[in-house]
Structure prediction request, 264 residues.
Amino acid sequence: MEADKIIAMRSDTNSARGDSTRVLILGGTSEASELATQLAVRDDLTVISSLAGRVSQPRLPAGIVRVGGFGGVAGLVSYLVDENIKVVIDATHPFATKISGNAELACNTLSIPLIAFERPPWAPKKEDLWCAVPDVQAAASMVNHKRNRVFLSIGRQELGAFSDCEAAWFLVRAIDEPNERLPTNSKLILKRGPFHLDDELQMLRSESISLIVSKNSGGTATYSKIQAARTLQIPIVMIDRPQKHNIPAVARTDDVLQKLAELL
Ligand code: NAP
Prediction:
C-alpha cells in the first residue's frame, strides 16, 4: 500500500474503540453511508469506511474514513492485517467490479468474512422505452448517429468510449471535470445528485434530448432521469450491469445488518 496516497479522515461519530470488532465498509454508495451511520454508533464496533477517491469532495460517511486505492489484492491483504479487520462489507457501486473481486480474493486469503451488498437494478415499466446493451462501447456505437441529441449520464470514468463519436450531439453530466476527451459535439454540466424530477424534465426538454445513455445503477439518487424519460417517452440505452460478485450478495441494507449480527 502506498501510504502517502491515503488521505485519512475522521468524523466525530466514531473513534477506534479498544476491544471492539473492526469492520471495513468498502463504500462510495448512499447505502454504504447508510450502513456506516447505523454501525458507527455501536459500542461493540469500530467502523472504517473506504472510498475510492473518485470524487474531489466526497460526502464523508460517519465513523472513520480512509480514501484511495489499497494497491491491488496484496495491498488490501496488508491493510486488513495491519488494521486488524474482522469483517468486510462490500457496498461499492454496482459497476465497480475490480474492488469487489479484490475484496473476495483478499478475504479468502485471510479467511475473513465478506458480506456482499448489491442494490437491485432498475427494472423497466411497461411505458419505458429501453434498449439494453452489454457495455459502454456498445452504447457508443448504437447512439452515434446524426440528429441524435444524447443525454450521456454514465459518470466520468468511461466517457472515453464516446470520444470518437462525431455524428451525434451529447449533453454530458458528471460530478467532477472528466479526464477523458469529450465528443466533438458536446456540452458538459457538472452536477451531483440526487436530482429532482422537475429539474430533469426541464433539462431534457430545454436541451431537446432525443436519447439517454445510462448505466443500470439502481438506487434512488438518479432514478428521476428514468422517470423523466418515461414521462417524455424518450428512449434509454441502458447499460447492463457487469457480474460483480462470485459469492451470493444481499440486496437490502437490513440483510447486511442481519448477516453481520450472525457473524458477531
Ligand atoms: P473499480 O474499477 O472496481 O476499482 C478500481 C480500483 O479503484 C480498485 O482496484 C481499487 O484500487 C480502487 N477502489 C475502488 N473502490 C474503492 C474503495 N471503495 N476503496 C478503496 N479503493 C477503491 O471501481 P471504480 O474505478 O471506482 O469504478 C468502476 C465503475 O464503477 C465505473 O463504471 C464507475 O462509473 C462506477 N462507479 C464507481 C463509484 C465508486 O464510488 N467507486 C461510484 C459511482 C460509479 P486498488 O486496486 O489500488 O485497491
